[in-house]
């Protein structure tokens, strides 16, 4: 039985063309989503001394606060495929951005360790949803030979 070889596409011009006008705004928005995810994740490391002082969180509880965003992120990443299969990427991403914003607002309002941990879990849940969606959306709007480049650019 002979194996039929599929001809390779002409790759002489792959990667040379800039993003089309329709791709550029989507890619920029996906990059902005990832910047927000990065901000939501590291904001605690910048503000930890002030939060410890204002909220009265003991130093030994700070590890729990930092880890809580990762727990929420893991939960979001686990269920993102279920949400996308029921809805589409765009509404789930918008929902994720609302969850991140809500979690950040709750973080600001937190006045106890438990409230701060809960707020960070909520923020992490939103980031766990938004991270894979931003990369997937970026890959969907570009031609197939540029999906890896689009996803890696958004992830960086």
How would you portray this structure in words?
By secondary structure, the chain is an all-alpha fold. It has helices spanning 23-56, 62-86, 89-109, 113-141, 147-155. Helix 2 (62-86) crosses helix 4 (113-141) and helix 3 runs antiparallel to helix 4. The longest helix is centred in the N-terminal third of the chain and has 34 residues, at 23-56. The protein is elongated. The model is unreliable at 1-8 (pLDDT under 50).
Number of strands: 0
Poorly predicted tracts of residues: 1-8
Overall residue-averaged pLDDT value: 85
Which value, in Å, is the CA radius of gyration?
20 Å
Helix content percent band = over 70%
Major β-sheet annotation:
none
- Helix/strand/pairing class, anyone? mainly alpha
Give a summary of the structure in a few sentences:
By secondary structure, the protein is mostly helical. It has 5 helices and no strands. The protein is elongated, with a radius of gyration of 20 Å.
Provide tags for this entry.
single chain, 156 residues, mainly alpha, 5 helices, 0% strand, elongated, disordered N terminus
Map the helices and strands.
Blueprint: H1 23-56, H2 62-86, H3 89-109, H4 113-141, H5 147-155
């Amino acid at each position: 039985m002979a194996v039929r070889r599929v001809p390779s596409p002409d790759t002489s011009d792959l990667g040379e063309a800039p993003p089309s006008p329709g791709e550029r705004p989507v890619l920029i928005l996906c990059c902005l989503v990832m910047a927000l995810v990065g901000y939501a994740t590291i904001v605690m490391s910048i503000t930890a001394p002030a939060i410890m002082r204002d909220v009265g969180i003991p130093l030994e509880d700070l590890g729990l606060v930092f880890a809580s965003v990762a727990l929420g992120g893991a939960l979001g990443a686990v269920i993102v495929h279920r949400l996308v299969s029921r809805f589409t990427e765009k509404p789930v991403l918008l929902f994720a951005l609302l969850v991140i914003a809500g979690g950040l607002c709750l973080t600001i309002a937190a006045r106890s360790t438990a409230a701060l941990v809960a707020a960070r879990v909520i923020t992490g849940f939103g980031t766990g949803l938004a991270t894979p969606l931003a990369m997937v959306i970026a890959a969907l709007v570009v031609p197939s030979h540029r999906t890896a480049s689009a996803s890696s650019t958004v992830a960086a």
